[in-house]
């Protein structure tokens, strides 16, 4: 038996040069007046990093979910990760419900139906990473500006809720999102 099996080192392309046009970003959601706080479906979402900040790789959103809050069932063609910092939420993934508590992380694969809902009596706070970026633009287009990270969005009556839903459904496809009927 001839043993001439030598392993040659694997080569990888070089790491690109540092892009000096990109800068360090520090997001301070409770004090940074330049951050945008968006009221949406009863929740408040603070845009910490946009696709513009990350060369389109991802966006980062600080979510304040009051008791009873959370989006309707939906799905989209991008990855989404939630890191729960405070409180707890009930996550529904492909019809199965799970309780997610502070300190836990869930990941939603692209295209999978899901939603989350705060069923507790305390607010929940989580970070949401969407990759690639773009979801933050959808939130900015359909939501309403609010003053702070925890400010409640205006209450909507039935007609306003129907108008919001119609606007969200009309815009969703351009942001690779599909709103689903309630389970």
As a percent range, the share of helical residues equals 10-25%
- Low-pLDDT parts are none
What is the CATH architecture assignment?
Sandwich
Between the first and last Cα atoms, what is the distance in angstroms? 65 Å
CATH topology: Jelly Rolls
Annotation field: number of helices: 2
Number of domains: 1
| Strand proportion | 25-35%
The CATH superfamily is Jelly Rolls
Report the top-level CATH class.
Answer: Mainly Beta
- What's the arrangement of strands in the largest beta sheet? 8-5-10-3-2-1-11
Write down how many β-strands occur, each being a DSSP E stretch of 2 or more residues: 12
Query: Major sheet: size, sense and barrel closure?
Result: 7 strands, antiparallel
The residue-averaged pLDDT reads 94
- Based on CA inertia axes, which overall geometry fits? globular
Order of helices and strands: EEEEEEEEEEHEHE
Compute the CA-based radius of gyration. 20 Å
Structural class: mainly beta
Pfam family, one: Cupin_2
Quickly list its features:
mainly beta, Jelly Rolls, three-stranded antiparallel sheet, 2 helices, globular, RmlC-like_jellyroll, RmlC_Cupin_sf, QDO-like
Describe what this molecule looks like in 3D.
- This protein has 183 residues and is mainly beta.
- The chain has one domain: Jelly Rolls, CATH 2.60.120.
- It contains two helices and twelve strands.
- Strands 8-5-10-3-2-1-11 form a seven-stranded antiparallel beta sheet, covered by helices on one side.
- The longest helix has 14 residues, at 158-171.
- It starts with 35 loop residues before the first strand and ends with a strand.
- The mean pLDDT is 94.
